[in-house]
């Protein structure tokens, strides 16, 4: 059921995307005191509650030898297994200030699991949730099952708590806002929920995760479908080699394939798009999104990997 809902959320708003501007960004390079005085909120609703909160490390952490995605060894924010004590349910929240968004706007962030994927590995989970009530949002306050007003599950990394499914390298995730009534901007809040059942030092799951470079990009709507106006992708369905015909010689700056969990699973070589040089045979069969960013705007379309 969750997967079906997530696919629907990702596919909404594919048509008529045009120019993008960054309306909110946070690279977590500032001290925690600055972060939380600027409107960010954290609340640990784990059961039983532990001593750990979301924090930007003051010194480099061994689990994050490469530091943040950008900005150095302490320029990211993290949560860990000590969110609970013994064995319990971790539900540790990090919530953004109110951000004005509309359908089609894009939320992006990088995430990784601490460590390198060797030795003992304990499963981790991260959810991105959304409230459409802005500063009036009810903040979770009554334990591990309380969602407050953050009932929209935008995306989830490793919902099945597979030990090796949370990436050990900084990985870009993307969510396209949908489900907002009308076309106007409305104040919303986004929440990261570090959520692990049977977590903690005595549990079977949970270790440490990090988040970096959170931003929201606003899209300007057009009457025409930007991708269809400018590009043709072929073949589609595709087995191995994917190509894109650039109808209007648009200046392409990046091309990405996004899976149904919102994760960027492959960056395509821009110079090879029209020359059949991008091999995606390593991807599993299924439905993906192809997102092409140009100097004129952003286009997105569905592709089927067979």
Question: What would you note in describing this structure?
Answer:
The protein contains three helices and 19 strands. Strands 2, 3, 5, 6, 8, 9 and 11 form a seven-stranded antiparallel sheet that branches. A hairpin with a 3-residue loop joins strand 18 and strand 19.
List keywords for this structure.
mainly beta, seven-stranded antiparallel beta sheet, 3 helices, 42% strand
Give the topology, please:
Blueprint: H1 2-11, E1 17-26, H2 32-37, E2 41-44, E3 47-49, E4 77-80, E5 84-95, E6 99-101, E7 106-113, E8 126-131, E9 152-157, E10 171-176, E11 186-199, E12 208-221, H3 226-230, E13 231-234, E14 241-246, E15 252-258, E16 264-267, E17 278-279, E18 286-294, E19 298-305
Antiparallel strand pairs: 1-12, 2-5, 3-5, 4-12, 5-11, 6-11, 7-10, 7-12, 8-9, 8-11, 13-14, 14-17, 15-16, 15-18, 18-19
